[in-house]
Design brief:
The complex is a heterodimer of chains A (362) and B (199). By secondary structure, chain A is an alpha/beta fold. Chain A is 30% helix and 28% strand. In chain A, strands 1, 2, 3, 4, 5, 6, 7, 8, 9, 13, 14, 15 and 16 form a 13-stranded mixed β-sheet that branches. In chain B, strand 5 and strand 6 form a beta hairpin. A seven-stranded mixed β-sheet of chain B has the order 1-3-2-4-7-6-5, with helices on both faces. Classes of the chains: A alpha/beta (362), B alpha/beta (199).
């Protein structure tokens, strides 16, 4: 099993991307690189919308989606300048098409709207289209428009139930998101699962222990704050350090690990994975991600990340170099890890030659 | 002429590959500003190189030549301590599978090598820095030309002189005239002039 959910993504008129020159092919482990404002974050956000493409209804009560307590489109719109900012040029229709790796046999438990009569009760879904305008959002499964209940049926068929799981988790490079992750992890029902599954210790063992001087043993809640238990010496008892005091890199690593391992998303989307992390923390984070049973899409500007990838060598890993034309058409070229290694061994910085690569050759 | 590392460029005239440290690149960037501004040279190398010297330099060119990249001109810069003769360069190119089709000596220790690798034809301007070892010998000459002071041709002596005068090496190059630069860095400046005028 290779854990690829989305094998191809096509984007038209979404955020700063007028269109992709060709649909973006995705593997199990994908690393987006390219200049600022080339469209990396827009691609990540487009993938996050797959989790639940609709707006949260103000009429029909619906439970908020973890971990941010909002629906992806509202979460993303809030990061920018509202729903119009998600559409290229602030008017028209943004269209996102996702092609799945496998056909998902979906049984609709609720009638599909608007044409109930022609609704098949079952459908084999292998492509999804989301159309966003300032007025509404339409979702089509294999070309047929579906409502939110139908989409939830589809998610159920993917093994996502409305309780704990989510299809994709997006980690933006945004401090508000980390505040939301902190609040999420502190919830009684979430924390009890984290403890039950031993994640509060695993995060130390798996990601932090090899990368810091401090001897931390577990993450616990003290005085309603997330703290790390720190062993100092026989004479000085354990200290409980608020994770805010451990530095941004460690704090982020803890929150992301706990949220991901608790929510078990099938797709993990992470913008600027290197932020605030020492190369050793990057290495252990990448090792953790490489072993995880999910599709990974991350972005980076860091040559440390690229170098470490050649050491960690995640299975089915591709480096996706992005470039954009002046009229906002985004093209990409895929590099295998061997090619990346080839460049680095010859002291060539692949980030610097993105524009010089021939994009017609795949 | 602009020498860039990471800025956006729509058309790269040639790649600059150095087999040395960062001083060579710094001096080249400032020197190039004095010449034709319509062309861009790009440095595709990592800030920290895995290895330096002739072998590393040729390996970098070979890797780039094997990739789907349009750029076919190179300015290769290396310190004298790594190269004893033109034959060293040709032997190393051959060892990496390049076929040298022609060689033109533009000035002493600057050659224009036309090479073939698979389906690709490349032009490599191969400039050697230093008179015996390295770039500090060129800088010592530039100090003599600009300030009239004789400085020993060692890294330590040049650095000491620069520190005493409150200068960085690039300040020295910026203040120098084209004529002085041509005398102090004959190989690199001649290569820049050729690159500025070729097609």
């Amino acid at each position: 099993m290779n854990f690829v959910i989305v094998r191809e993504l096509d984007i038209t008129e979404f955020r700063g991307i007028r269109k992709l020159a060709k649909p973006l092919k995705l593997s199990k482990f994908n690393v987006l690189i390219g200049r600022n404002n080339v469209g990396k974050t827009a691609i990540l956000e487009a993938l996050y919308l797959l989790t639940m493409p609709y707006r949260q209804s103000s009429v029909v009560p619906s439970s908020p989606l973890p971990p941010y307590d909002s629906y992806p489109i509202e979460f993303i719109a809030k990061t920018h300048d509202g729903i119009p900012s998600l559409i290229y040029g602030y008017a028209g229709t943004a269209t996102l098409k996702y092609y799945l790796k496998e056909k998902i046999k979906t049984e609709f438990k609720t009638p599909r709207l608007p044409v109930v009569e022609t609704t098949p009760k079952e459908m084999e879904v292998d492509n999804i289209e989301i159309r966003i305008t300032t007025e509404d959002i339409k979702v089509l499964l294999n070309g047929k428009e579906v409502n939110k209940n139908n989409y939830e049926d589809f998610l159920n068929s993917l093994g996502i139930n409305s309780g704990r799981g989510i299809l994709s988790l997006y980690i933006p490079n945004n401090s508000d998101a980390y505040k939301a992750l902190d609040s999420f992890v502190l919830r009684d029902e979430v924390w009890s699962w984290i403890e039950k599954e031993g994640l509060h210790r695993k995060v130390i063992k798996e990601v932090l222990e090899p990368t810091i001087y401090d001897k931390l043993t577990e993450v616990i809640i003290k005085r309603d704050k997330l703290c790390a238990r720190k062993e100092v010496s026989e004479n000085i008892g354990p200290l409980y350090i608020n994770i805010d005091s451990l530095g941004e890199g460690i704090k982020r690593a803890i929150l992301i690990y706990l949220a991901v391992e608790h929510l078990k998303p099938k797709i993990l989307i992470w913008d600027d994975i290197e932020v605030a992390a020492h190369p050793s923390l990057i290495e252990h984070t990448l090792k953790w991600l490489a072993q995880s049973k999910r599709q990974i899409i991350v972005s980076t500007h860091s040559i440390d990340v690229l170098y470490i990838l050649t050491q960690v060598r995640p299975k089915d890993c591709k480096i996706i170099t992005l470039k954009k034309s002046p009229d906002d058409i985004v093209n990409y070229k895929i590099l295998a890890l061997d090619e990346l290694e080839d460049y680095l061994e010859s002291s060539i910085d692949v980030r610097k030659i993105i524009e010089d690569l021939n994009y017609e050759s795949g | 002429m602009r020498v860039v590392e990471s800025e956006t460029t729509h058309s790269v005239h040639a790649y600059v590959i150095t087999g040395n440290g960062s001083r060579d690149l710094r001096v080249l960037k400032v020197s190039a500003e004095k010449y034709n501004h319509s062309k861009t040279l790009k440095v595709p190398q990592t800030p920290i190189k895995r290895e330096t010297g002739l072998t590393a330099l040729i390996r970098t060119i070979a890797t780039l030549a094997d990739k789907p990249i349009q750029v076919s001109k190179y300015l290769a810069i290396i310190d004298k301590e790594h190269v004893n003769s033109l034959q060293d360069v040709i032997d190393e190119l051959n060892r990496f599978g390049f076929k040298v089709t022609s060689v033109e000596e533009l000035v002493t220790w600057l050659w224009l090598l036309s090479v073939r690798r698979g389906p690709k034809n490349l032009n490599i301007y191969f400039a050697v820095l230093g008179t015996r070892k390295r770039i500090e010998e060129n800088l010592a000459k530039l100090i003599k030309l600009t300030y009239g002071e004789k400085v020993p041709e060692s890294k330590e002596a040049v650095n000491k002189w620069l520190k005493e005068h409150g200068l960085e090496d690039i300040d020295l190059v910026r203040k120098a005239s084209k004529n002085q630069l041509e005398k102090a860095f004959p190989t690199v400046i001649q290569a820049l002039k050729k690159l500025a005028s070729d097609n």
